[in-house]
Amino acid sequence: MHIYANPKRFLSLAQWLTPLLFWSGLVLSLGAIVWGIINVAPDRLMGESVRILFIHVPAAWLGMGGWAGIAISSAVLLIWKHPLASIAARAIALPGMTFTAICLATGSIWGRPTWGTWWVWDGRLTSMLVLLFLYAGYIALAQATAREGGSVKIAAIFGIVGAINIPIINRSVVWWNSLHQPPSITAGGSSIDASYLWPLLAAVIGFSLLFGGIVLMRMRALIAEQQVEARLRRRALDDDAPVAARPMAESA
Amino acid sequence: MKAKHQRLVLVILALVAIVAAGLIATWTLRNQANYFYLPEQMAAEPPAVGQAVRLGGMVQAGSITPQPDGITVKFVVTGNEASTVPVRYSGILPDLFVEGSGVVADGSLDADGVFQATNLLAKHDENYVPRELEGLEAHQPSDYADTTIGID
Amino acid sequence: MREALDHWDYVIAAYAIGLGALAILIAWSWQAMRRAEKRRDEVKRK
């Protein structure tokens, strides 16, 4: 856990973990979706549109889980100054935002035939939209600090402060009267029939694995970019100081 | 105290402060952020006649009565307590609008205490039950499907 | 009067949008990783 922690060990781990997470996640999530579209009985009230469940719920879970990941990475960065933490947080942001957007889009499409409206400004929908904007703000901030050479702490603080929205989203349907229904899965059990619950669980696990694979891909890209930058900078320094020039072989 | 521990304490303190601030803010928002009024809330603090509000609750079993003009329905919304609000609505009904299920209505109270709805939204509950199993459930909203056929 | 919508249209639309966005995300992340690691290996070799 040193500030100059060598990413080599992480890279050798990511080398085989990336395809493993990606392919297992893809197979599991697509399998669950196909099962959910073909093999599940229509709901007593919602009818066929209940099938949207198998993409809407995993997307919501990963949208919120993604920000939890950003917040945890940010805390690790601020406390232990671990260099991988800021890379992890940056790598999570875009997949998290995409899943939040998928959650909002599929929820909107689901709302039209069931509730009778595409969108309402109730607590759940509004707080989820706020999460989307938080992701956009985080990405812009992280990119600006990376490009302008600012401190990575700025984005990390934003990541921690933004985490307050996560429990608000979770509790919004309990605290306030909302059009969105209360949680189906609570500590006390589930009010989802087993024939929906099992494929839903498979979809959640599958999409989570896929999410992990995508995050690893993005982390590897960020690490590679940093390595290139560091190498070019070192080379430029060597060129600028011919007096103290050492043999090129040493820097290669 | 090592610098690392100092940072740890600082971050934890900051987190606690943020969570507390968020909780206080949402607690004070408790009533303002409600999307609709329950019947008992409307009975306790009745809105002015003609004031645009939202009413939400359950459609009372057996209360949907189609009117002779074909597009108007009357029904009764119940909440968690005894108070109920009669509603009158003309227009297209959402597919999930059935007796014993949730509803959210835009509109206003008229002088007679009847809620004149301009728009209806169906509110689904947290139960997901396949159609074949509905008879096994304790309460079966689509048992009332027969009564909704009349207003199709 | 009932709306009587065909729910299948909405199911198909939801999955088309959701899986489409996911496919773009995956393709982009994969390509970014490939390109960045390739460039690193090139710079390393020089």
From TrEMBL, chain A:
It is found in: Cell inner membrane; Membrane. It comes from the Bacteria. Its main location: membrane. InterPro entries: Cyt_c_assembly, Cyt_c_biogenesis_CcmC, Cyt_c_biogenesis_CcsA/CcmC. GO terms for biological process: cytochrome complex assembly. The chain crosses the membrane at residues 20-38, 58-80, 92-111, 123-142, 154-176, 196-217. Residues 11-180 form the Cytochrome c assembly protein domain. GO terms for molecular function: heme binding; heme transmembrane transporter activity. Keywords: Cell inner membrane, Cell membrane, Cytochrome c-type biogenesis, Membrane, Transmembrane, Transmembrane helix, Transport. Pfam families: Cytochrom_C_asm. GO terms for cellular component: plasma membrane. It is a multi-pass membrane protein. Belongs to the CcmC/CycZ/HelC family. Required for the export of heme to the periplasm for the biogenesis of c-type cytochromes. This is Heme exporter protein C. It comes from Erythrobacter crassostreae. The gene is ccsA.
TrEMBL record, chain B:
It is a single-pass type II membrane protein. The keyword Transmembrane applies. The keyword Ribonucleoprotein does not apply. One of its GO terms (molecular function) is heme binding. InterPro entries: CcmE. Heme binds at residues 124, 128. Residues 29-152 are extracellular. GO terms for cellular component: plasma membrane. It is found in: Cell membrane. Residues 1-7 are cytoplasmic. Keywords: Cell membrane, Cytochrome c-type biogenesis, Heme, Iron, Membrane, Metal-binding, Signal-anchor, Transmembrane, Transmembrane helix. GO terms for biological process: cytochrome complex assembly; protein-heme linkage. Belongs to the CcmE/CycJ family. Heme chaperone required for the biogenesis of c-type cytochromes. Transiently binds heme delivered by CcmC and transfers the heme to apo-cytochromes in a process facilitated by CcmF and CcmH. This is Cytochrome c-type biogenesis protein CcmE.
From TrEMBL, chain C:
One of its GO terms (biological process) is cytochrome complex assembly. Keywords: Cell inner membrane, Cell membrane, Cytochrome c-type biogenesis, Membrane, Transmembrane, Transmembrane helix, Transport. It comes from the Bacteria. Its main location: membrane. It is a single-pass membrane protein. The chain crosses the membrane at residues 12-30. The keyword Transmembrane applies. GO terms for cellular component: plasma membrane. It is found in: Cell inner membrane. The keyword Lipid biosynthesis does not apply. Required for the export of heme to the periplasm for the biogenesis of c-type cytochromes. Belongs to the CcmD/CycX/HelD family. This is Heme exporter protein D. It comes from Erythrobacter crassostreae. The gene is ccmD.
